[in-house]
């Protein structure tokens, strides 16, 4: 009995002391992409809130499914955290199911952290200046335009698939292991365009090395100044948005989940966080609770499932 009481006491002390060591924040894409940018923006303010280092761990591959499964199968002790988009949580399981792994079952939502439209960015050498000109070029040259994405089934991929359907054009998909290498391929001229996350393309747009034709929201946004929304650009039936959120393995203690949620909220409320994200075309978008984020995911899953079905997306 004494041993049992001591065990309970020590367990309670360990829980009360959480976090007692560094927390790993796993990113399912290569460094310098949008997910990596958002993770590194949160890194310092979350460290201050937790009182422990937050270590970024990039694990690219399979459209971020490798990272998501790695986190889901990590010890549920609050020391492994995933930053993920709709792709890895809601879309990949529909396109390429992985035996023994279901994100909505094996991961627990902590909070949404950011939201933004995507940017239709092209290589200036293509010679188009508006979305209308891009559509006209694609119609005149079916199958000759190559679009880059951060992976099969990623939001940039599905955004381009939806664009092809609504604009009645045909393009070739070239998937990469992250937003950064995808954008580099457009920059190099190996591909001609990408429906990219703002952090991965805006610095290049501002430097004149890429041309932004539109954002994927229906209307223009102050997040990406000077770039029209889809309605103004000539495709009013088109609209799609993008978010990132934090997740932990299923079974993570509620105390650790609460402390991670609180740390994330403090990080999002820090003035430097909003300013840094805004400079890259993204805004903070925290959830009121982990439960609210879970409810949001349940509704958003319906949208992405319908898009996958309507678009007829298949595995590579």
Give a written overview of the molecule.
With 316 residues, the protein is of the alpha/beta class. It folds into 2 domains: 21-115 and 242-311, D-Maltodextrin-Binding Protein, domain 2, CATH 3.40.190.150; 117-233, D-Maltodextrin-Binding Protein, domain 2 (3-Layer(aba) Sandwich), CATH 3.40.190. Helices cover 47% and strands 18% of the residues. The protein contains 13 helices and 11 strands. It has helices at residues 2-16, 34-50, 65-72, 86-95, 103-106, 131-140, 155-167, 179-188, 198-206, 230-233, 254-269, 271-279, 290-311; strands at 23-27, 54-58, 80-84, 107-117, 119-122, 146-149, 172-175, 193-196, 211-215, 241-249, 283-284. Strands 2-1-3-10-4-11 form a 6-stranded mixed sheet, with helices on both faces. A 5-stranded mixed sheet has the order 7-6-8-5-9. β1 (23-27), α2 (34-50) and β2 form a beta-alpha-beta unit. It is globular, with a radius of gyration of 20 Å. It starts with a helix and ends in a 5-residue tail after the last helix. The model is unreliable at 4-14 (pLDDT under 50).
Task: Outline the biggest β-sheet.
Answer: 6 strands, mixed
What radius of gyration results from the CA coordinates? 20 Å
Based on the structure, what is the oligomeric state of the protein chains? Answer: single chain
Overall mean pLDDT: 91
CATH homology superfamily of the largest domain: Bordetella uptake gene, domain 1
End-to-end gap: 58 Å
CATH topology of the largest domain: D-Maltodextrin-Binding Protein, domain 2
Number of domains: 2
Strand coverage percent: 15-25%
The coarse silhouette is: globular
């Amino acid at each position: 009995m004494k041993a049992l009481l001591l065990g309970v006491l020590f367990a309670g002390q360990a829980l009360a002391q959480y976090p007692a060591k560094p927390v790993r924040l796993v990113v399912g894409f290569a460094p310098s992409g949008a997910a990596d940018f958002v993770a590194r923006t949160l890194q310092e303010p979350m460290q201050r809130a937790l009182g422990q280092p937050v270590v970024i761990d990039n694990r690219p591959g399979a459209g971020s499914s490798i990272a998501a499964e790695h986190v889901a199968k990590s010890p549920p002790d609050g020391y492994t955290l995933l930053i993920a988009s709709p792709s890895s949580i809601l879309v990949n399981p529909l396109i390429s199911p992985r035996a023994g792994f279901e994100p909505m079952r094996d991961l627990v939502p902590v909070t949404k952290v950011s939201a933004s439209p995507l940017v239709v960015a092209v290589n200036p050498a293509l010679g188009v200046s508006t979305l209308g000109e891009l559509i006209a070029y694609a119609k005149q040259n079916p199958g000759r335009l190559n679009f880059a994405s951060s992976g099969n089934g990623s939001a940039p991929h599905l955004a381009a698939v939806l664009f092809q359907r609504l604009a009645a054009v045909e393009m070739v998909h070239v998937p990469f292991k992250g937003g950064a290498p995808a954008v580099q391929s457009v920059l190099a001229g190996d591909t001609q365009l990408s429906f990219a996350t703002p952090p991965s393309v805006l610095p290049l747009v501002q430097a004149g090395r890429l041309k932004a034709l539109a954002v994927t929201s229906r209307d223009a946004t102050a997040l990406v100044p000077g770039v029209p929304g889809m309605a103004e650009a000539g495709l009013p039936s088109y609209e799609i948005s993008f978010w990132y959120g934090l997740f932990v393995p299923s079974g993570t203690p509620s105390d650790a989940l609460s402390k991670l949620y609180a740390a994330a909220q403090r990080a999002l409320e820090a003035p430097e966080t909003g300013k840094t994200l805004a400079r890259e075309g993204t805004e903070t978008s925290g959830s009121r609770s982990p439960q609210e984020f879970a409810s949001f995911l349940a509704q958003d899953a319906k949208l992405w499932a319908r898009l996958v079905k309507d678009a007829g997306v298949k595995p590579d």
